[in-house]
Amino acid sequence: MTKTYTVTVAYAGGEERRGPVTMGQANMIRCMLRDEPEHINIHAVWPVPGGTRTEAVIDALRALVVRHEALRTTFPHAPGEAPREQVVAAEGEFTVTVLDHDEHPPEGCADSVARRNRVERFHLNRDFGLRISLVAVEGAPLSVALAASHAVTDISALSVLEEDWRGLLAGRTLPAVTAFTPLDLAAEEATPGGLRKAEASLRHWERIIRTDPQAMFAEPGAVGTEVEAEQLTLRSLRGARALALAAERTGGLPSTVLLTAWCALITHRAGQSSCVAAVPTSNRFLPRLARSVNTVSQDALLSLDVRVPSFDALLRKAWGAALNAYRHSRFDAVRLWEVIDAVTYERGSRFARDVVFNDVSTLPSTPLAGDVEGPELDVVRGPVQVLPTRVLTFVHETAPVLRLGLWVDPALFTPDEAEGFLTGLVRLLEAAATEDVPLAALTEVTGVRPVERGAEWCRVDGSWVSPPEVADVLSGALGGVPVHMAPDADGLVAFLASGGSPLTPERAHAALMDALPGRPGVLAPCRYVIVRDAPAEADRTSAWLGQRILTEGAGRGRRS
Cβ distance 515 to 500 under 8 Å? Predict the structure, then answer.
């Protein structure tokens, strides 16, 4: 039996404030208004120290709310409009749902409660930013299960809150908050220096989107914009020891060594020459952001060219590339998407946020950290989650145990290949612990093999492309007109038989771009050549060249 009841908790003593939203808040609010709540809301579970009373847990939660402005923030806005302002309340109330079990609940109960609480959408104009459940047995609290609005916190902020909450439970006097509050950050972003940083970030993103691969996983099987992926968790003493030794041998930071190994293996598996990855947590690298209770979740976009001979050479490049990404991780999200849409339309590709690397290992420690009795190497399967990426990695801990969470697209990785990627990462770290590793030897060292693409695949404008798929998608987008693809010095040329319809390069390009999402193997032709009828030998380029050309062009004119 489980007895469920709700406790209403009043708080007072804060300061009432209001002002504009931050760039990070605007970014996450945009996602919250667009995406399913279970995909964008976040959650956490805080184990309650033994012997703690329910009243003490609630008192500490109340003190957290008074201490951190983000937890007292709502976002007023008119119906149909995105919020542009935030309001911090001086007083108010929130609720705690207590789930009191007659006997000890099964393992994972609190996590299941937190995940269920993610499913309901947060109303930005009125809802408290945390849904709090207290899992107990016979009146003794076991865990606090939280679902959180991504407009007020991110994973880093939840870790800061947990550390403060534990300090309050232990009776410690917490130091004054010196990190940016959301309103502090909004004010800093609006300064001339803050605006220059945002503009520089847009230029950084535009350069990468114009020149790097359109998708890391452009290959057979890569379809759709969302994947349902099973969580894999690696825990490895071997990996942690190897990482420490590799950092000592090379003089690199452990976090940079791990990022380098991950980029090398991802790029090797994807058969790419550079690694383009979103690195969200790393935008907290400034001191006053490190412990900010706020949502600072804006991607740092990393571009690391792996065309070097060895691991050590790649490591020397990785720190500069990572720092460049971190410095350009604050931007106006609406303007960024305007840049992305304009550049991808001109380039004829669709930018895919295929891989995400989120290193949260430097956040305040949790009870799971410091597990010196951990396994030498163990991979455990967990729950399934829908993701808008092909590969998502969370680094939870690097010492004394290497602990990673990994989600991969099952259409691209079999279960054995997914586990093999994690064990291959450990093997690469072990090899790098003792000597420089030639990148040409990654298959032999790690057991991870590059993807096999058929002979029809080719590189165009830095991206892997399947010309037959381009032809099929373009034909389908135009109602089935015959299409033939031919190579050209500048890319691919599409020959189209209009059959007398008023077809133009601009219309052909617009139709193809509308069909691109979820098709990373498709890149627009550099030129569209339109004839009236397909030749008898429709598979021969010379036959198409013999037809009278009605019109031709790049089709890149801006949409009206």
Answer: no
- Element housing 486 (H / E): strand 483-488
Tell me: the pLDDT tens digits for 428-478?
999 999 999 999 999 999 999 999 999 999 999 999 999 999 999 999 999
Q: How far apart are CA 356 and CA 354, in angstroms?
A: 7
- Beta strands (DSSP E) in 124-186 are 130-137, 140-148
CA–CA dist 262, 270 (Å, integer):
12
Q: Is the separation of the CB atoms in 217 and 409 below 8 Å?
A: yes
Separation CA 114–CA 93 (nearest Å): 20
Task: Locate 441 and state its tokens.
Answer: 């030897």
In Å, how far from its chain's centre is CA 517?
A: 17
Choose among 384, 391, 388, 426: nearest CA to 407: 391
For residue 333, report the phi and psi dihedrals to the nearest 5 degrees: -65, -35
- Residue 84 to residue 82: CA distance in whole angstroms: 6
Q: Which of 523, 500, 475 is nearest to 214 (CA)?
A: 523
**Do residues 156 and 150 make contact, with C-beta atoms less than 8 angstroms apart?**
no
- pLDDT at residue 324 in the model: 94
Contact 70, 152 (CB under 8 A): yes
| 286: its two tokens | 């400034």
What is the tens place of the pLDDT at every residue in 74-91? 999 998 888 999 999 999
pLDDT tens sequence across 484-505: 999 988 899 999 999 988 999 9
Tens of pLDDT, residue by residue over 23-70, are: 999 989 988 998 889 889 999 999 999 999 999 999 999 999 999 999
Best CA proximity match to 113, nearest among 208, 4, 19? 4
In 3D space, the residue among 430, 39, 389 whose CA is nearest the CA of residue 238 turns out to be 430
388-421 burial, b at 16+ Cβ within 10 Å, e below that, comes to bbbbbbbbbbbbebbbbbbbbbbbbbeeebbbbb
CA–CA distance, 67 with 71 (Å, rounded to integer) = 9
Q: What is the mean pLDDT of the segment spanning 282-295?
A: 83
Q: What is the 3-state secondary structure (H, E, C) of 225-254?
A: CCEEEEEEEEEEHHHHHHHHHHHHHHCCCH
Short-list 427, 364, 337, CA closest to 179: 364
Burial class (CB in 10 A: 0-12, 13-18, 19+), 13: exposed
**Phi, psi (degrees; rounded to nearest 5) at 408:** -130, 150
Reported confidence tier of residue 367, pLDDT bands at 50, 70, 90: very low
Contact criterion met (CB below 8 Å) for 202 and 93: no
- The pLDDT confidence band at residue 366, using thresholds 50, 70 and 90, is very low
* CB 42 within 8 Å of CB 158: yes
How far is 161 from 153, CA to CA, in rounded Å? 10
Cα–Cα distance between 142 and 339 in angstroms, integer? 48
Q: Tell me the two tokens of residue 271.
A: 């058969």
- Identify the residue whose tokens are 């350009």: 328
